[in-house]
Design a protein that fits this description.
The complex is a heterodimer of chains A (427) and B (831). Chain A is an alpha/beta fold and 427 residues long. Chain A folds into two domains: 1-30 and 189-250; 36-186 and 258-425, Alkaline Phosphatase, subunit A. Chain A is built from twelve helices and seven strands. Chain A has a seven-stranded mixed beta sheet with strand order 3-4-1-5-6-2-7, with helices on both faces. Chain A starts with 5 loop residues before the first helix and ends in a 20-residue tail after the last helix. Chain B is globular, with a radius of gyration of 32 Å. The chains are: A alpha/beta (427), B alpha+beta (831). Chains A and B meet through helix 5 and helix 6 of A and helix 3, strand 3, helix 6, helix 13 and helix 16 of B.
Chain lengths: 427, 831
Amino acid sequence: MTGINRRHFIKGAGTTLALPFLASLQSNAFGKEKTAPSPQRMIFLCFGWGVTKETWFPSTNESGKNWQITPGLKPLEKYKDDFTIIQNTQHKFLNEGHWGSTFYLTGANRYGVPGKSFHNTISVDQVAAAKWGKNNRYSSMPLDCVGAESQNGHGPGLSASWNNSGKPLSGLKSPFLLYNKLFGNEKMTPKQKQHMINEKKSSLDIILTDLKRVNKKLSANDRDKLNEYLESVRNIETNLAKELNWLYKPKPKATVKPPAKTVKGYDEIKLMYDLMIAALQTDSTRVFTYRQPVQSLLDSLGLATNAHDMTHYARGIRYQNSQIRDEKQSELLAYFISKLKKTEDQNGQSLFDTTTLSYGSNISNVHHLNNCPAIITGNRQNLQLGQQLIMPEKTPLCNLWLTLLKASGIDQQQFGDSTGLIEDLLV
Amino acid sequence: MRTLFIYVLLLSLSTLAQERHIQINEDFRSFFTSYCTDCHNSKKQKGKVQLDDGFSFKINSVQDADRWQKILTSINSNEMPPEDETQPKAKDKAEFLEMLSRKLVDARKLLSDSGNETVMRRLNRAEYANTMKNLLGVKVDVDNLPADHASGSFNTNGGSLFMSANQIEQYLIIAKKALKESFVTYSDHKLMKARTEPEQTTTKRIKNIVLAREEKMARAFSYTNSKDPKKTPQQFGFDSERGVKSIYIGQDRFYLPQLDYVMHPLSKKGALLSLNHPNPIQSVYLENKKLPSGFYKVRAAVGRTQTATEERSFLDLGYKSKEQDDLERLETFHITSNYKKPQIIEATVYINDKQNRVFLSEKQTKINAKAQQAKSRRINGRSTLGFSLWVDWVEWEGPLKVQGPELVENLLVDFKENPSDEKVIETLENFAKKTFRQDAPSKEYIAKLLKLYKSKLKLHENALEAIVDPLAIILSSPGFLYLSEQVQEDKSTKLSQRELAVRLAYFLWSEQPDQELLTLAKEGKLSSKQTLTQQIDRMIADKKFEKFIRSFTYQWLDMERLSFFQYDTGKFPTFDETMRWNIAEEVYQTIKYITLNNLKANNLVKSDFIVINSLLAQHYDIPAIKGTHFRKVKLAEGSVRGGLTGMAAIHAMGSDGVYSSPVERGSWVLRKILNNPPPPAPANVPQLAEVGEGLTVRQMLIAHQEQPQCAHCHKKIDPIGFGLENFGPTGKWRKKVNRNKTSSLVDPSGKIFNGPKFNTYLELRDILHSQSENFYKGLIQNMLEYSLGRKVSFSDQDNISRIYDHMNKNGETVRSIIHAIVNSKSFKFKN
């Protein structure tokens, strides 16, 4: 980047500004009709430390519709026809046994750029967000937990989402924050809000004046670094432009109770699921990623084990706790599925049928990065559910992401290191 | 070593990336010809992999490294050679794996070597908070900013300090709040004072609960004993039969401790502190009033009860947060006088809308009521452990008049009435200049801020409110948030004097340079050899140097792990949160002591003294010393304490809250003391079927040796780990170890891989001490990374050697390392 071309930037912001405006007009005029097809949605749930190998994965001798539920998946038995489990996918570049989510949705090569010790690329959810985001108040909502990086085995990043330049997107770390973003802060009149937005815009404008000054004296690499700041400002400006469009559309009425600030672990995950449903129901966003907590889940279940050490299980208490963890996580997923099925969107269709839900981790178990646990559910019109797919060993996980994009109506040739689609997953 | 040196020299001379490579020893070709090339040859190319003669043993690109990584992974995971083919001998395989995993670590290092280029970085969370505190005199709430402690690198590493939209919005919010709070804190207020006699508050409250309970029990009793056949629970004031029953069932959980409390004679003259119910924390009742933010003095008269023991005579004072049940400990007092003549303790606290509850409690930071309860039941069948500390009265006074930072004091004067435009411009310019560490803002920027101020003035009532937003913008601008350094035409450029001052300050103080540094920089004197030396010593002597000690040490020694585990309070009754805080403090205090007193840095490996307080003295069974401040204590001959591997913190980190972990400890010693880090735990190694809880530690060692994938690292890790087995999970010394209900004598004897044998821990420590050069080089490398804000790599090896030489000639002190780092070209030059 050579200097900051302010005019170019404003022009850029202008076009992104105009598009959502048109889209929202359209949806105002026609979108409410029940006959309109429902939009596609995507959710990526990530848990850091993988699963218990022996008791979570179904036998690889069984495939198709014929497979036996395992102890780790037991709570999901009732929904056996509603999800597909996929074995043998992996990211070929990953070597970090403690990084469950850093490259999970991107598939990038950490060392891909010479002279740098960290490199990442866009995550799959952001591909969808770029496509659909203009229709919603929030183009995507990355969710996160406290202490995600090390204790919860997710690895570096601010959420599982990474933007177009491979920079991390920050996530909301608690149900309380998510609730506020979805339903809070409605005390202002549109006029007051407009004023606030204008004030923010002028603040950003002043900030960019200083950025221009600092930028002048920097080396190429440092300009690159500062560009992160510029991109972030642009990001805010786009969001503000969007807020202007939504000015006269108040935030939806809350469909759930405001959560307590201190809720942790099992209930925290459950509340996040509830709030995701509320967000989809009100069409506040169509794209979610969530780095789920593991350590606080254990704490909330009264299991006194360190999450990382638990993954190095052998017979004994760690092994038991590891299995309880699996079961409880499956129980939560079953709860989520049941709620998605029960809830209708604004077009009267069930959220389950219109949402592609992925549940898994980049870590299989211990430090194993092959055969990532992967469960796909929802979006029944486009996905073949109720089966186990045993893929050839080392199938790129990115093939799965590419397939999910296609099932959601986003056709692209490639994603990450993908080599093709998982055809058996598609209807 | 010498060949490496020449090689490194060549590397640093060569500028073209393709000339730099990692060479794999050609001797290992035979491994390929024996086990691989039957299938992976140029004709067959099974799996499109060809490993025969043409295959290059040089790694000089990302693709090469990825290819070798694949080879490593497939052998590690037992995927190759296939089961039905000839398998390598265990020894060959282990050697090959060891060599290759090391070479790959080197290759990754080489390929990600930035060639001495330091990427500009933003202030990390801690530096931001420190700098804000310095500028505005208030502690900002940074909970919503990313923590910045990335795995495997320091929080000063520019490459991993990202920026996001949310973050910029947070900076604006935090700055506005901090400015408003600062204006209140440093304005004049009326002094207030209040004293509480807790028998009238706490005791009264508990007594009322007891009385109500007893009254209810009496009613339940008369209902049950009534012979009237027509009796109903309602007549006796109960909703239902169940309501009556509930009085009898599960009543004692709260009632008995409450009764114990009320019956205690001292509760009539003050408040008793209990470990759990009914009074685990004594509030200072500040929160009942809406007080202006500011500094307050808190005092209390506290004495020991008759039953107090030495162990239970520590009092914590701190903040209780409204939102979480966490307590933030501020200070621990050792209570030495008894209730007849209570001791007066005093502390200055800072109160704002988030931090407005002050508490006193017997030492323990987290209220983990359940665990505490369970613990006391196990011990004596009752729900209370008795009372050790008694509070006669508590009082507070404030807000105290405290001199604010210059910027704030000026604003409070200048913006009392509406200042002229000139004054506003001058203020904005000064504020920006100070905030940008003496870099001047642009005219356009100031003009825009002035415009904003004026538009705010139209909306707000007073000038002070109107200036908040413009100042918050300054505090969120790149000029403040980024430590930018100027370059000339993308070439290596010597830092300006001002930039040098900034680097120095963030290195040694984790905050912005003070006036003296900036003045010297302005006068062009800072970089002269003599001045620089003086300044470094002044900075080390300054209180702010503690920030370096803590921040650097925490990350260097991976002390994050200390907070990972919940210790079972039943098993380790004295190992509570306060203890955990204190054992960490021992590490910091020791490093500080060694640094300030110019002792050899390898006192961290072995020393004849320790730096502890009375809490740690008890933990280590060292004859009682009084008071919670840390001080040097001479050790008896043959003591196992002295040096990092004798510290409780290191052993607690190398445990999981229940058991010690020889593997964790052994690899920690390899990484931190011997500077010989084992390669990262490889992905996809088959898990040994029976490693872990079921085995004695010795059996585990044998299991590790069975498989070459494990053996090649564990033969180095395990012997050291076992040599430390005399230290229990909390760092207490033990002769026996209990696992799976069996108890066995600790046998620490072993042999360093390719090195000497040892029979006892003390012999092991002597071996570590004899290899101090490794320890020093590791320390230097870490400190260099921390100070430069980037990974150090091959191109830095020269520099590390020079720093090492300098330190060797200057008493082997931490101070000499710091001097050498600051005087190195890497530090004085941008890129």
